[in-house]
Structure formats: structure tokens, C-alpha cells
Structure to design on (81 residues):
């Protein structure tokens, strides 16, 4: 599995975790469940942190691939000179 694919999987998981925590929070504050609203907020924060980390991995991966492409272009140019 590539780094980008793993990061996209993490983004998907974080989104699902955030949605689940949001549902729990809404049920808790509306009185529909006895769920702990503090725990639901903590889960939202954890999901946001996971999402931010996944976005960071995608950005770094993109920068690395672009740098490799540039190195390849620079090498091809200098070999032809």
C-alpha cells in the first residue's frame, strides 16, 4: 500500500469516527441517550487530530513525489547538455 493510499484510508476512518462522535454528542445533549457528551467531544477532537495528520501525510507525500520528478527532470536535462 502506498503512503498516499494509507493516508487516504486514515482520512476516511477519521471522517467516520467524527461522524459517529457527532451522532453520540447530539443524542447525549438532546436527551435521547445516556452517552457521555464529554467523551463524544474528546472523540471528535481525536478524529480531527487523526484527520489533520492524514492531510499532513498527503501534503508531504505530494511534495516528495514532486521533488523526485524535479530531480529526474534536472538529471535528464544535464545529461543532454
Amino acid at each position: 500500500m502506498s503512503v498516499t493510499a494509507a493516508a487516504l484510508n486514515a482520512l476516511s476512518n477519521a471522517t467516520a469516527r467524527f461522524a459517529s462522535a457527532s451522532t453520540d454528542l447530539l443524542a447525549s445533549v438532546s436527551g435521547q441517550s445516556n452517552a457521555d457528551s464529554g467523551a463524544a467531544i474528546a472523540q471528535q477532537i481525536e478524529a480531527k487530530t487523526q484527520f489533520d495528520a492524514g492531510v499532513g501525510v498527503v501534503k508531504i507525500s505530494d511534495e516528495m513525489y514532486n521533488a523526485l520528478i524535479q530531480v529526474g527532470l534536472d538529471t535528464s536535462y544535464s545529461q543532454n547538455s
In short: The CA atoms of residues 14 and 50 lie 6 Å apart. The chain has one domain: 3-80.
